Amino acid sequence: MRLGIGEVLGMSSLYALEKLHKVYDGRAVLAVDTLQVREGEMLALVGPSGTGKSTLLRLMNFLEAPTSGTLHYRAQDVTASAPLELRREVTTVFQRPLLLRGSVADNIAFGLRLRSAPVNGNVAHMLRRVGLANMAAAPARKLSGGEMQRVALARALVIEPRVLLLDEPTANLDPYNVSLIEDIVREQNKTRGVTVIVVTHNVFQAKRLAHRVGLLLNGQLVEIAETAAFFDSPQDPRTAAFARGEMVY
Amino acid sequence: MEEILAGLAHALRLIFSGDPALYEIIWLTLQVTGVALGLAILLGVPCGAALGLYRVRTRGLITVLLYTGMGLPPVVVGLFVYLILSRSGPLGTLSWLFTPYAMIVAQVIIAFPLTAGLTMTAVQGVDPALRLQARALGATGAQEVWTILTEARIGVVAAIVAAFGGIISEVGAVMLVGGNIEGKTRVLTTAIVLNTRTGDFDLAIALGLILLAIAFIINGGMLFLQRNALE
Amino acid sequence: MKHFTLAFILTFAALIMAGCATATPTALPPTVAPQPTVAPQPTQAPASACALRLATTTSTADSGLLDAILPDFEKKFNCQVDVVAVGTGQALEIGSKGDADVVLVHARKSEDKFVADGHARERFDVMYNDFIVVGPKDDPAQILGMTSSADAFKQIATKQASFASRGDKSGTNSKELSIWASAGITPTKEMAWYNALGQGMGETLLTSNEKGMYTLTDRGTYLAMRDKLPNLVIILGGNSLDENKDKALLNPYGVMAVNPDKHPGVQYEMAMNFVNWLVSPDIQKMIGTFGVDKFGQPLFYPNAKP
After folding, report:
1. Which of these, B116, B227, C190, C197, is most buried using a 10 Å CB contact count?
2. pLDDT tens digits, residue range A127-165?
3. Smallest CA–CA separation between B229 and chain C, in Å?
4. C:109-168 residues touching chain B, CB 8 A cutoff
5. What total of structural domains would you count in chain C?
6. Please, are residues B177 and B85 in contact by the beta-carbon 8 Å criterion?
7. Which DSSP letter does residue A139 get?
8. Residues whose CB falls within 8 Å of the CB of residue B70, separated by 6 or more in sequence, listed in order
9. Counting beta carbons within 10 angstroms of the beta carbon of residue C251, is it exposed (0 to 12), middle (13 to 18) or buried (19 or more)?
10. ipTM of this predicted complex?
11. Distance between the two ends of chain A, CA-based, in angstroms?
């Protein structure tokens, strides 16, 4: 088990966000007062489309800098930018697979090649894990939607990230691929202790996967709680409405 | 028709006769065009990539300039280079006028807008989300640019092909700044002009066919690379 | 991906190879000016590092005269001659910028101006040939039999017969314009029969052959291309220079070394070697016999003052 400075000091949070704001063209899309993410947990962020969930993930992957507020990762202030070695501990699987030209194996090896890490054994292992062992040489963009998303997941996992960010990863997939992907994510969390933050508007997915669930509305974190508490005894009436499936979006 | 057939026969005879003067002309053509194309790639592709990838305040203006450059008559470029490199010009001390260097300078100026402009267009055509994905997978700035360029490689190869075609067939500028000196600055196109001028049409046609064959082989090679890139 | 990388590597490799190779044949003239710092120096010294640049007209180069006589100079002085063959106007322009060491042209007035402007110290007679008027066999302007070029041009204008002009400020073009002037006519673009082509002698002859136009040409170029001009005949000027009754049609060539006082970069000494060589009796004799075996008459008549 890897231990960061936070753990040593008895502060167990991997991410610590304070008054984190993001403004695009004068429009505030994100205004999170405070959020702590624990190492090794699976956190689901739910809420209607366009409430800043994806923006939050981009900030947590250090792809963009916040307009104001502070962002700490492993007890380091990474608000403005994160050093490469920290940046490379975190990766994202987006809603679209975003595969590159080339074969399935080339795509999975992409992150390893960026790090000049050994490719062969790792890629083969990942290919088997996502059920595409006999597709290694196939052109990646000619696969079905579910297969492509599994390639994207394998590409993210092969670099052994500390944090896996998932942005609506199964929104367009059939139940078979959804359960396959959820199984792999759950297994990575359990066996390797990967911290997972999944953004979804699917209440049931949040329930199936997450240890904790948070609701984002209009860029604000309305409520965050253990999964059982979130669904069974919500504190905020809007959370209750969302949990019951009554929130129209 | 007779003339064309005679030219064809002449071309074949020339190629297989091992005439050293002809090989000299072909070799110089390949050298000048090769170096010019290489430099245009070295300068143009990074410029085009930067313009396509980063927010540049003057991009509109630069784009218009590049597109204008693509339409600039080569002979105007030649005249400009001539005046710059002339002994009475600002760079006269280089003594580059009427040497292959001057021809390369002119060809680079002709090819640069093509490599830069078309690379820019190709890069702009790549899904911007791919760039984000590459960074999310741990790409450094340079790796990110390289990833986008390889994604846009079909367009980049097209840019290179266009630039190659533009300069290997160009005659006005290289005639002006090279001077068509036998054994020194005579390339296929200027040799064709010379033989047309003297009415040696069959020789001109033969040289034209050789130029055509070279262009065909090189473009075929590039297409082969592009095909593989499609995989 | 691999192929693409390979392509780039190949390009770079070709670039480097070509870059080195280009340096070899490029003998930079050993000028008094500082050597270029950017230019790679020749890795292998060529047989002769000396290269004299001659700006001349297309007629001397295209007729094959230079190919016949220059090897003698190159051997005697161990100095290569780089021939830039262009129109007389452009050749003088190249000389007046100091981009050539010596010029060999045929436009007396412009040559005198070149000397007057200080671009050369002196002009030397080298040789002459003559201009002729060629035109379609059926001679629509009915010039055949005339002896004066000015009269013939007047007739062409009166009959509005199609005429092709070089229109390129070449020596031939300036001669043509002086004939029009002596005929009291100023050709303008409003005259539909007058076609200023802006082309070299060869192209102009070929165009005249295709379109059935009259044109003024130097005899040498016409003789060299006669096989390709089946529709044209000599209308004025006879079958050789001796038969040409119009002395205004004589076409003298002059040679000038570019003045080092005005253009310090030029190789004056070697240029004067060239001038003296060109007017020497041996070479003058060689000029006088060039083309006789092929055309039955010389293409150029030497006239250097001994």
Report:
1. B116
2. 999 999 999 999 999 999 999 999 999 999 999 999 999
3. 7
4. none
5. 2
6. yes
7. B
8. B113, B114, B117
9. buried
10. 0.89
11. 41
pLDDT mean over B117-127: 95
Q: Could B98 and C203 be called an inter-chain contact, meaning their C-beta atoms sit closer than 8 Å? A: no
Tokens standing for residue C28:
């930079």
Task: Considering only CA atoms, give the Rg of chain C.
Answer: 23
Q: Which CATH class is domain B22-185?
A: mainly alpha
Q: What are the tokens at A33?
A: 């007062």
At A249 the pLDDT is: 52
Same domain, C262 and C243: no
Task: State whether residue A89 sits within 8 Å of chain C by CB.
Answer: no
> For residues B207, B209, B215 and B221, what is the CA-based torsion angle, rounded to 10 degrees?
-130
Asked if the Cβ–Cβ distance from B98 to C62 is below 8 Å, we say: no
Instruction: Select the residue of B136, B143, B147 nearest A100 (Cβ to Cβ).
Output: B147
C245 confidence band (pLDDT: 50, 70, 90)? very high
**Whose CA is closest to C98, among C256, C295, C288?**
C256
Compute the distance between CA of residue A75 and CA of residue B122 in angstroms, rounded to an integer.
42
Residue pairs between chains A and C whose CB atoms are closer than 8 Å? 3
| Chain segment B59-109, per-residue pLDDT in tens | 889 999 999 999 999 999 999 999 999 988 999 889 899 999 999 999 999
Q: Quick check: B11 and B213 in contact, CB under 8 A?
A: no
Strands annotated E in chain C: 51-57, 80-86, 102-105, 124-136, 163-165, 194-196, 214-218, 232-236, 250-257, 301-302
List the domain range (segments joined by +) for residue C61.
50-128+252-302
The widest CA-to-CA distance across chain A, in whole angstroms, is 52
Please give the DSSP secondary-structure letter assigned to residue C259. P
Sheet of A76-77, strands arranged across: A27-38, A13-24, A68-73, A76-77
> C141 with C283, same domain?
no
Pick from C149, C111, C104, C145: which is nearest to C131 by CA?
C149
C18:B184 CB<8 A: no
d(CA C29, CA C50): 6
The pLDDT averaged over each successive group of 10 residues in chain A (249 residues) is: 44 87 92 95 92 94 96 94 95 96 94 93 92 93 95 97 96 93 96 96 91 94 94 91 73
Any idea what the Cα angle at residue C138 is, between residues C136 and C140, rounded to 5°? Answer: 85
Q: What is the CATH number of the domain that holds C95?
A: 3.40.190.10
Interface touch B199/C83, C-beta < 8 Å: no
Stated length of chain B: 231
* Segment A107-129, tens digit of pLDDT: 999 999 999 999 888 999 999 99
| Chain A residues in contact with B136 (beta carbon < 8 A) | 61, 63, 90-92, 94, 165
Q: Is B126 left (phi over 0), alpha (psi -120 to 50) or beta?
A: beta
- Please state, in angstroms and as integers, the Cα–Cα distance from residue C13 to each residue in B39, B187, B214, B219, following that order: 12, 22, 19, 18
Question: Given this model, what pLDDT does residue C171 score?
Answer: 87
Instruction: Based on the fold, state whether residues C136 and C239 are members of the same structural domain.
Output: yes
Residues C205-212: what's their mean pLDDT? 92
Taking alpha carbons only, the member of B185, B188, B205 closest to residue B196 is: B205
C213-235 pLDDT tens trace = 999 999 988 998 898 899 999 99
Are C144 and C82 found together in one domain? no
CA A195 to CA A193: how far, in whole Å? 6
Burial class (CB within 10 angstroms; exposed 0-12, middle 13-18, buried 19+) of A204:
exposed
Residues 6 or more apart from A62 whose CB is under 8 A from it? Answer: A73, A78, A81, A82, A86, A87, A90
C137 in a domain, yes or no? yes
Same domain, C95 and C201: no
What is the percent of chain A with per-residue pLDDT over 70, rounded to a whole number?
94
Could you report the per-residue pLDDT of B196-225, keeping only the tens digit for each?
A: 877 777 788 889 999 999 999 999 988 887
